[in-house]
């Protein structure tokens, strides 16, 4: 293949109107719109002059770059395109699972986390079963990041053993990310504002192979 046949490679973000990258050999690539200032224009994936800039290397990707990317390769004679999804996720920050006891026979289990993307799924479990009395509040800030607080109130009469282990599980399903915290409750304790002594943290985190998925466009 020769540049004389009119080779043009374009990348689009979330549809045909969102052009973000264009390369017409033998010229250097152009970055447009969403990716402007975020691409390493010195990055080459091949020494072949018709392959060199077919891939994009993004510097410091942020969650707003998540979406569908379409690569369109065309010549004077034909055109081909492929679309793939890239997810840039933000793991949980300030992930806490605590007990708060204001009444003799009731304890509040409070699980919270901040600055997550995409939208998280949260559950408070006992013996692997989600507590039905859980109330969850979720907020999204101006950057598109989520904060979540989930609260469950447990009565001492529902705890049939000397202690009960509760687990807060937080996940970002599209990112294959799951993390949890465990706290142990002893019924019969007197009211206190915050029970820190009996909190046990057991983080178990499963991450995908990488936070970023780079898709290469082959000519």
UniProtKB/TrEMBL annotation:
Domain of life, per lineage: Eukaryota
| Xref: InterPro entries | Ig-like_dom_sf, Ig-like_fold
Q: Which PANTHER family match?
A: BEAT PROTEIN, GH04238P-RELATED
Question: What name is this protein filed under?
Answer: Ig-like domain-containing protein
Species name: Papilio xuthus (Asian swallowtail butterfly)
**Taxon lineage:** Eukaryota, Metazoa, Ecdysozoa, Arthropoda, Hexapoda
């Amino acid at each position: 293949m020769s540049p004389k046949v009119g080779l043009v490679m374009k990348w689009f973000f979330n549809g045909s109107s969102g052009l973000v990258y264009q390369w017409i050999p033998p010229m250097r690539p152009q970055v447009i719109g969403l990716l402007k200032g975020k691409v390493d224009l010195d990055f080459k994936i091949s020494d072949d002059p018709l392959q060199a800039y077919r891939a994009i290397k993004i510097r410091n990707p942020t969650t707003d770059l998540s979406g569908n990317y379409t690569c369109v390769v065309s010549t004077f004679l034909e055109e081909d395109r492929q679309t793939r999804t890239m997810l840039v996720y933000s793991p949980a920050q300030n992930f806490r699972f605590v007990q708060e006891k204001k009444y003799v026979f009731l304890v509040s289990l409070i699980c919270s986390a901040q600055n997550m993307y995409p939208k998280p799924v949260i559950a408070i479990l006992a013996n692997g079963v989600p507590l039905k009395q859980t109330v969850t509040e979720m907020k999204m800030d101006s950057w598109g990041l989520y904060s979540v607080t989930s609260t469950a109130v447990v009565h001492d009469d529902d705890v049939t053993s000397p202690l009960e282990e509760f687990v807060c599980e937080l996940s970002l399903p599209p990112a294959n990310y799951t993390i949890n915290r465990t706290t142990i409750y002893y019924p019969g304790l007197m009211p206190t504002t915050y029970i820190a002594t009996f909190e046990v943290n057991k983080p178990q985190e499963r991450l995908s192979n990488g936070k970023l998925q780079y898709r290469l466009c082959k000519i």
